[in-house]
Amino acid sequence: RYDAVIFDLDGVLTDTAHFHFLAWQQLAQSLGIDFDSAFNEQLKGVDRMGSLSRILDLSDKQFSHDDKLKLAELKNRHYQKLIAHMSPDDLLPGAIECLSSLRLAKIKLGLASVSKNALAVLESLEIRHYFDVVVDAALIKHSKPDPEIFLTAAKQLNVSASMCLGVEDSIAGISSIKSAGMTAIGIGSSSVLREADMTIPDLRTLLHYISLN
Ligand code: BG6
Ligand code: MG
């Protein structure tokens, strides 16, 4: 039995991973840079400036630090337009069932998202109250794949890493969970999320793998 389950947000509880992709694509296109969904797998779970650097590396132009800050801000505006009308209807299948069953079973719940928009999304989805801990992305120095965010969640939950299960849809996120010394469940394909201990298609099957008593 696990003492805590620590969830990623974007692409796990709701499909905002797709909105991040669309917003980055919109920004990249305005710069004449092209990237596809396979490249996007490398951006998932990586913070805003880190993702921007990877995209700008595809171009042969040079960008100053000031340019980068403005571009990151512009991407965030594109993204915020896409999430402006989110509601509980945008939760992915199985999300509410998982959160409520885990809480009933007194398993602690944490949220480990590097997104500075995470709290706003949680509130639009009306699920903030399920979580004992929501790590503040602004305080995280090293984005996924560094283990910092999952270790911070475990520490704030007062649970040892080995008793935590992490749930992620990104390559960087699975690495973060594994290097934190936790068990990693991947949402998606095992050919992409190779480091995961197990992969499942969506949250509808998560509870089959967690003993609740
Ligand atoms: C992660 C997403 O959750 O948050 C990334 O997987 C995103 O795609 C990152 O870049 C940072 O998000 P934000 O909202 O702070 O720009
Ligand atoms: Mg994610």
TrEMBL record:
InterPro entries, alphabetized: B-phosphoglucomutase_hydrolase, Beta-PGM, Beta-PGM-like, HAD-like_sf, HAD-SF_hydro_IA, HAD_sf, PGP-like_dom2
GO biological processes: carbohydrate metabolic process
Annotated substrate binding sites: 8-10, 24, 43-48, 51, 75, 113-117, 144
Binding site for Mg(2+): 8, 10, 168-169
Pfam families for this protein: Hydrolase
Annotated positions for site Important for catalytic activity and assists the phosphoryl transfer reaction to Asp8 by balancing charge and orienting the reacting groups: 113, 144
Cofactor(s) in the UniProt record: Mg(2+)
Catalytic activity: beta-D-glucose 1-phosphate = beta-D-glucose 6-phosphate
GO-annotated molecular function: beta-phosphoglucomutase activity; magnesium ion binding
EC number, UniProt record: 5.4.2.6
Catalytic site: 8 (nucleophile), 10 (proton donor/acceptor)
Keyword Magnesium: yes
Keywords: Carbohydrate metabolism, Isomerase, Magnesium, Metal-binding, Phosphoprotein
Similarity comment text for this entry: Belongs to the HAD-like hydrolase superfamily. CbbY/CbbZ/Gph/YieH family.
PANTHER family: 6-PHOSPHOGLUCONATE PHOSPHATASE (PTHR46193), HEXITOL PHOSPHATASE B (PTHR46193:SF18)
Name assigned to this protein: Beta-phosphoglucomutase
Gene this protein is translated from: pgmB
